[in-house]
Specification:
Radius of gyration: 13 Å
Oligomer: single chain
Low-confidence stretches: none
Structural class: mainly alpha
Largest sheet: none
Length: 109
């Protein structure tokens, strides 16, 4: 399940391309936990954009996350600092599909 299949052509931004170059077309270089964290952070980011003015992903992490991100998740956050909300939704969809698939392979949880 490649990330770009979940993101409309118009929303395939430079930051999404950089994320794919850094972590693979299926974000396979991120751990299961990192994918869970990135999905949660992107959801929080989009929520905060809807409910408050001017938010960046890093600020959402610093203000709203109770745990310290891993080095890889921290790198992904830096790449996606000003990600377009529609691209973030596509990434959330891709991460959800990947996590569902990974959970099925692991026998669920």
């Amino acid at each position: 399940m490649e990330v770009l299949s979940y993101i409309d052509q118009i929303n395939q931004t430079a930051d999404v391309q950089e994320l794919i170059e850094q972590f693979g077309s299926q974000l396979q270089k991120l751990t299961h936990e990192d994918k869970l964290g990135l999905r949660a952070l992107l959801s929080t980011y989009n929520y905060l954009l809807e409910t408050k003015e001017e938010w960046a992903l890093l600020r959402a992490v610093l203000d709203e996350t109770p745990v310290q991100p891993s080095k890889e998740l921290d790198e992904a956050i830096a790449i996606l600092e000003e990600v377009d909300p529609d691209a973030a939704e596509g990434l959330i969809e891709a991460l959800t599909a990947q996590l569902r698939h990974e959970n099925a392979r692991r026998g669920g949880r």
